[in-house]
Amino acid sequence: MSVKIIEKPEPPASNECCGSGSCCPCVWDYYRDQLHIWQQQQQMTSLELKVKEASLASPAG
Question: Residue limits of the Oxidoreductase-like domain (predicted)?
């Protein structure tokens, strides 16, 4: 299974939301979903780097 790495999403521009609250999904819903995925990917990447650094720093046994 391949994982698609996404770039940090940009908030919707002021002209992209109608403000009626009736759109499903709203552009803000999509933005929040994408931001959440991006944040999770950043945390995983950070954790993976820490694990790699720790394995490189530990003496070979």
Answer: 3-43
